[in-house]
Write a structure and sequence with these properties.
Rossmann fold; alpha/beta
């Protein structure tokens, strides 16, 4: 057996050398474990664990902050993964009876990688964790190279006087909004802001010393972003682009993003930007980069 001290819980967690019965209440950790090849070790998940598709075949144990105790007792997990933040009190409650490991929420791209890999390390699979780490780092290098090629177009002399020339180092100003039970956007302490900056965008709220905030519609109008990225609520099928743009226009008026039809709706009915698993790097960043290509070519 191993004893690992959890800084979050302030106590030691006793674990086997290799965890064979894993329960994950974190969609990002569930996806990371599958990408490490550890899907068969996962015996239970939350209802929000939808990546990869095989995760939905696992036993549903609960949601973000609820659980079915009898199912957990039946599984007898070697380890239960949660996150911090909104799941912290839930994790503390669970830890009174089960071996729980809360993994911190990421604040930047480096954290997205490290938190995903932390799960493999703690579960007793360091080789698999490091392989995933290197895969994600390599992918970031590829994306950075692609982004720099697009940046060279933005900074070329022919673009100095057109719509692609922006006041702040030629970065494309973007406003991000996710429906998390109400309009939510992101500040300096968010991995979303870091990702946008990495790809050469400027989040219009990047100077806000917060992870997330409720946007002031008047401020959004004043900042007049070039691009809007909008994510509907998870599982919502109300994703009609024209209807979403209409509602954004009612709030912000005819800002540049709306006037120039640079409003982008995240694909699918699941969390996309709000999901900070490995696919945030392998899929979401690539999707954001495609937005940049479309903006430059428009």
């Amino acid at each position: 057996m191993r004893e690992i001290f959890s800084e979050v819980l302030g106590k030691k967690v006793v674990l086997p050398q290799k965890c064979e019965r894993i329960v994950s209440f974190s969609p990002s950790i569930t996806e990371a474990l599958f990408m490490m090849g550890l899907g068969e070790k996962i015996k239970g998940v939350s209802v929000y664990c939808v990546r990869p598709p095989d995760a939905r075949k696992k036993i549903i144990i609960g949601s973000y902050s609820t659980y079915k105790r009898e199912k957990l007792l039946e599984i007898n997990p070697d380890i239960i993964f949660t996150t911090t933040g909104y799941q912290l009190e839930f994790a503390k409650k669970l830890s009174d009876e089960f071996p729980v490991w809360p993994i911190r929420l990421p604040s930047n791209l480096a954290d997205v990688i490290s938190t995903c890999c932390e799960a493999g390390l703690v579960a007793g699979y360091p080789d698999e964790a490091r392989q995933l780490e290197r895969k994600l780092i390599d992918h970031l290098f590829i994306l950075k190279s692609q982004a720099e090629k697009i940046n060279s177009i933005l900074t070329s002399p022919k673009n100095e006087d057109n719509n692609h020339s922006n006041s702040n180092n030629n970065k494309i100003k973007v406003y991000v909004e996710i429906d998390l039970g109400g309009p939510t956007t992101f500040g300096a302490y968010s991995y979303i802001t870091d990702a946008l900056d990495f790809l050469g965008f400027e989040n219009i709220f990047s100077d806000e010393p917060k992870e997330w905030l409720r946007p002031d519609d008047k401020v959004v109008s004043q900042k007049n972003p070039d691009v809007i990225i909008y994510e509907p609520k998870m599982f919502s099928k109300r994703r009609e682009k024209e209807e979403i743009i209409k509602k954004l226009f009612e709030r912000f008026g005819e800002i540049k993003a709306i006037k120039n039809k640079n409003v982008f709706i995240t694909p699918g009915i699941y969390d996309f930007l709000a999901h900070h698993g490995p696919s945030f790097i392998t899929e979401t960043l690539q999707w954001i980069l495609e937005i940049k290509k479309k903006f430059v070519s428009s």
